[in-house]
Amino acid sequence: MVLPPSTSSASRLIQANTNTTAARFNRKIIRALQAKLKTDPEVDLSTLLKANYSEQLRSFKAPNFDATDPSTVVCELSIELKQLLEDEDGDDLSRAIVDLLARSEVLYRSAWAASSKVYRVSDQVVVKITDERYAVTEHSSLLYLQEHLPSFPAPRSHGVVRIGIFCLLSTTFVTGLDLEKAWPQLGDIQKHSISGQLDALFSQLRSLPFPENMPLGGVQGEGCKDGRRGLRVNSEPIMNVKQFDEWIFTGSKTASPVYTRLLRSLVPATIPTCVFTHGDIRSANIMVDKQEDGTWKVIAVIDWAASGFYPAYWESVKATMTPRDDFDCHCSTRWLVDRLWDRNMENSS
Fold first, then answer.
1. Is the model more confident about 105 or about 336?
2. What is the Cα–Cα distance from 22 to 56, expressed in whole angstroms?
3. Distance CA 244, CA 217 (A)
């Protein structure tokens, strides 16, 4: 929830809402704990909560900003964003942010993480509330594309700010319609055209050379991300595909060594190259626009939070590994192996 500019911390007491995503999540946890207590009344409850419980709970809560929350510039702000904030209150960054969001339009609310929102704060700028690790990676990747592949249709970053426990990434606002909404109204010829445009664009993206001695993952050393159920990030630098595969296949506490070896035996022996990867390709992240002649054009690819240099197969694995989309397609061996492995991840819900 976004508070009006004049609202103080003292007036934030409201009647408890028992039907929020966070409340339902906690009730699910309580039911699981109660079931365990019935079988073992002396069980150590602390061992039953997963390590990422707090992170999951926070993601289910809607952002509740207060102008008294401390704010920090994480990644340098653009001139445009500085001007917007100065128009609000140039002497107090937290107050300026709260006031700006309070009068902005909400463009997007995540169906699975209440803390993830996108605000349109001006005609040219949007602000996304997200995990700081995602925000920094997206900011870094957008700068990298701007320098190394400026012709690629992607937003421009306006910087990253942390306020309280939340992180705000600002980027350019992209007009048009996302492909998820546009697809049903397209004919076969238009669909083939969009497909061809995407093939050409991602061929360009994947042609970016993998810098020597750069770790896999985010281009500023943020590490590799595996966000299938929660957010898992490597603790040590991953320098090649072999190390990446080792990291992927050590993410489970439930898979037996025999099962793990079976899955790994299905993986082709050929070691793929590393390419620049978006990491979350789906129709909702592809912006299109209808041209005056009636054709449709891809005008932007958005949401680069999971991007960086990854094995060449990773893009297809992630593009077909989303619980919010249904796909009717023939899947590669890599995808099938990852699909089987997914249920064994230590951060599974």
1. 105
2. 9
3. 10
